[in-house]
Design a protein that fits this description.
The protein has helices at about 35-45, 70-80, 85-100, 115-135, 140-150, 160-165, 170-180, 180-190, 195-205, 225-240, 250-260, 270-280, 335-350, 365-375, 390-395, 415-425, 440-450, 460-475; strands spanning about 1-5, 15, 20, 25-30, 50-55, 285-290, 295-300, 310-315, 320, 330-335, 360, 380-385, 405, 430-435, 455. The chain is α/β, with parallel strands linked by helices. The protein folds into four domains: about 1-55, Molybdopterin biosynthesis moea protein, domain 2 (Alpha-Beta Complex); about 70-280, Hypothetical protein af1432; about 285-350; about 355-475, Response regulator (Rossmann fold), CATH 3.40.50. The protein has a five-stranded antiparallel beta sheet with strand order 9-8-7-6-10. Strands 12-11-13-14-15 form a five-stranded parallel beta sheet, sandwiched between helices. The longest helix is centred in the N-terminal third of the chain and has 19 residues, at about 115-135. The two termini are about 40 Å apart.
Length: about 475
């Protein structure tokens, strides 16, 4: 089987997996042949696509993480706000995940817009449960974690529909109302003896950030429970990859880049690293487009093949292992035409020597400079400097760079001191990405005070570096 985006589904194709409605009832059974009227109905209800069965993908099997019966029971529990039932359902979810020995998750939920709130919580429960298993949580903690995922958005059902389903940006007042959902969810369960304290605290803190910028109580990393940190990552990831009436979902790899880019700022670094290892960036059975123009289906996506999957070319059935050296120059895109065109344009701009973005790196250690240069020089024009004074002199004579990567702990002039001068001289128009071996809250808060574009901890991870630089330069991201 393979997943086909709804815009590409054709009449006559065969549904390979049951499709359920918001109440957990089968809307379309496996084996049904699609018609134009059925496809139109799925589009109207907001379904992003369907799994189909055909000759090219007949050997690809994607069993659901949860049985249909348990999935439906979890949906019903959330839909009816059944707090008491959430505990045994959470235990059943943990039992099923453990029994199936799921160590890697291929999650592509088939749902419409109307049931987002319900299906989102079930997805988060599965994501969090698998991540908790990977992080070797004991069984009682796993049940508390999954129960927190089931309950974490109950408070949203008390938010006015006009805010919850608004198709444009929330006003400041509306956002403040939306932010109350964590406290509301907690208030629903705080006096329940059958709900563990771990679950209660995770529900309350699932929007708290590592640097203290979250809500409702602005907790920092040391005061946030591990269960809440896991729930936070799973919650944000599923929200990012989900299509909503007002936005198209991120691709799985873009959502992972977001998590990595915000690691140590919004999310716990260890949790994110486990998550990226366990949740494939290219789901099994998904279609991807290669820079060669070939459309392929993902066949294998674990271990070394997480970042570079093994795929099958649709045109002739040939298997291509993107992790092999001979295929290293092939890049991966979404099959969405608009996305492919915009990203291919950006890729060409990055590879064009005359149009390469300019990155300045400042670090007093030659080895660090050389390492960063090797990571970035294929895509960017890179200039290296060993002190704050050197880069300040350079900036007075040269064209403004697109990004400055600055070590914090340097002799004579700290990176933060140099950044203050650059911000004042150039009115914060040059983004600065800080790099340091230090991860203390004071350092993070200082970076935020300087309105830095990002913050990375050594030792370097090339994927993190590349994704952060691209995020800042091409998407103008800030943390």
């Amino acid at each position: 089987m393979r997943f086909i985006p709804i815009r590409n589904v054709k009449s006559g194709e065969i549904v390979a997996n049951d499709i359920f409605d918001a109440s957990g009832r089968i809307l379309l059974a496996s084996g049904i042949q699609l018609t134009d009227s059925i496809i139109d109905r799925l589009k109207e209800q907001g379904y992003p696509g369907v799994y189909i069965g055909d000759d090219i993908s007949q050997d690809i099997s994607i069993p659901p993480a949860l049985s249909p019966v348990l999935h439906a029971a979890a949906l019903e529990c959330i839909r009816t706000l059944n707090v008491n039932q959430s505990v045994p359902i959470s235990g059943s979810i943990v039992e099923e995940l453990l029994k199936k020995h799921i160590v890697s998750l291929n999650l592509r939920d088939i749902r419409g817009f109307d049931d987002y709130t319900y299906a989102h919580s079930v997805n988060v429960a599965v994501l969090a449960g698998v991540l908790g298993i990977g992080m070797k949580l004991p069984k009682d903690k796993l049940v508390s974690l999954v129960n927190a995922a089931i309950l974490h958005d109950f408070g949203k059902l008390y938010i006015p529909d006009g805010i919850l389903n608004k198709t444009s940006q929330l006003t400041a007042d509306e956002y403040e109302i939306m932010k109350t959902h964590a406290q509301r969810s907690y208030n629903l369960i705080k006096d329940r003896d059958n709900i563990s304290e771990d679950t209660k605290m995770a529900v309350l803190m699932h929007h708290e950030n590592e640097d203290g910028s979250g809500y409702p109580n602005a907790k920092t990393g040391k005061d946030i429970s591990l269960i809440a940190k896991i729930l936070h990552v799973a919650d944000v990831y599923d929200a990012l990859i989900s299509d909503r009436p007002y936005k198209k979902g991120y691709t799985h790899w873009n959502a992972a880049e977001y998590l990595m880019g915000a690691s140590t700022i919004l999310f716990d670094k260890d949790v994110v690293e486990h998550f990226v290892r366990m949740v494939p960036l290219y789901p099994l059975g998904a279609e991807i487009a290669l820079s060669s123009g070939d459309i392929c289906i993902v066949l294998e996506n674990t271990g070394l093949n997480n970042l570079r999957p093994k795929v099958r070319r649709i045109s002739d059935g040939k298997t291509i292992d993107l992790a092999e050296r001979e295929n290293i120059m092939l890049t991966i895109h979404s099959t969405d035409e608009e996305y492919v065109q915009s990203n291919e344009s950006k890729r060409r701009e990055m590879l064009d020597p005359n149009n390469k973005k300019r990155v300045v790196i400042v670090d007093d250690m030659r080895t660090n400079l050389q390492m960063l240069r090797e990571i970035l020089v294929p895509k960017y024009n890179v200039s290296l400097f060993k002190s704050g004074d050197q880069v300040l002199n350079y900036l007075r004579k040269a064209k403004k760079p697109d990004l400055i990567i600055m070590d914090i702990d340097m002799p004579e002039m700290l990176g933060t001191e140099c950044a203050e001068i650059i911000n004042e001289d150039y009115n914060h128009s040059i983004p600065i990405l800080f790099v340091s071996a230090l991860s203390s809250l004071d350092v993070v808060l200082k970076c935020r005070e300087l309105k830095a574009a990002g913050y990375i901890i050594r030792p370097y991870n090339s994927v993190y570096i590349q994704s952060e630089v691209e995020r800042i330069i091409y998407h103008k991201g800030v943390f």
